[in-house]
Amino acid sequence: MxxxxxxxxVAFKDSQxxxxxxxxxxxxxxxxxxxxxxxxxVSGKLEYDAPxxxxxxxxxxxxxxxxxVGGDGTFxxxxxxxxxxxxxIIGINAGxxxxxxDISPGEIDNTLLKIHKGEYNTMSRMVLNAAVMREGEQIGxxxxxxxxxxxxxxxxxITSISAWHGSDFITExxxxxxIVATPNGSxxxxxxxxxxxxxxxxxxxxxxxxxxxxLTERPIILSSDKSIRLVVNEKNxxxxxxxxxxxxxxxxxxxxxxxxxxxxxxxxxxxTELSYFALLRRKLDWGRGYKNRNSCNDS
Length: 299
Hints:
The radius of gyration is 21 Å and the shape is elongated. The chain has 6 helices and 16 strands. A hairpin with a 2-residue loop joins strand 5 and strand 6. It has a 6-stranded antiparallel β-sheet with strand order 6-5-16-13-8-9, with helices on one face. It has helices spanning 16-32, 56-62, 72-81, 108-116, 189-192, 276-284; strands at residues 7-11, 36-38, 65-70, 89-93, 121-134, 137-144, 147-152, 159-165, 168-175, 177-181, 204-210, 220-223, 228-232, 239-243, 247-250, 256-270. With 299 residues, it is an alpha+beta fold. It is 19% helix and 36% strand. The chain has 2 domains: 7-118, Rossmann fold (3-Layer(aba) Sandwich); 127-263, Probable inorganic polyphosphate/atp-NAD kinase, domain 2 (Tumour Suppressor Smad4, Sandwich), CATH 2.60.200.
C-alpha cells in the first residue's frame, strides 16, 4: 500500500487517557521524524508545544491519513470531517466499545510505524446520501457512514411513514420511527432496534422500524442498487431526521426522504487479519453460548 508520510490527529474528549495518547503520538513523531498535524480542536489538550493547524482545511491538506482518538462517535465525526473522501482513517480506541476504533493505546508505536511504511490494508465502507424533499424542492442533503433515521422528538405516540424501494411500494410503517442503515451501521442503532448484523462488504440497505406497532413489520435487507423513499404521513409530525446522530433537521407532513448509496466511500485502515466475525465475538460476545464463552477462537 501507499506509504503514509504524514498523519493528522483528531480528538474531542478532554480525558487524561486521550491526553496521554496525544502525547505518545507526538513523542513517536519526534522519535521517527514523521510529521503529525493536530486538528485545531486539540489545542490546549497538550501540555507542551505541538504542531496544531490553524484551520481544518490546512489540517486536511497536510495529512495523508487521519487518526481518530476516542470512540466510535469520534470516528464518525472524523469521517464527516474528511467529507467522506477516500482519505484513510485510523481509529485509536480511547472511548468505550470502539467497534470502529479497534487499535488500543498500547499499540500506537507499532501501528503508526507500520502504516508509515505502507504495511496496511484499507477497507472501503459505503456511505448513505439522504436528500430531503419538501413541496418538490430539495431542502437538505445528509451523508452517513452508519445510518439515517427518523425518530419522534417530544410527542409519545407512534407515527406513520410509508416506504418504497425504487418504484416498489414496501408498506406503511406504524412505529416510533425508522432506521436506514449501511452494513457498517448494522451493529449500531439498527442492532439495538432489532435489526440484523450484515457483513460490511455487502452492498445493501437495512430498513429497520423502531418499536413497530405490528409484529409483522420486521427489519428487511434491500439491494443498494435502488434508492429508498420515505414519506411522512402525519399531519402534525414531531419528528427529527438525523444522520449518524451528528446532523439533523425537523420534518413536516408529506416530506420525502430519498436515500441512496452516496457514490463516495470511507476508507478504514486495517493492520490485522482479524475477521469480521472474530471482531463480533471480541466486541459483542456474539455467538458465544454460556458453555463456550471462554473457549472461542478469535484468530
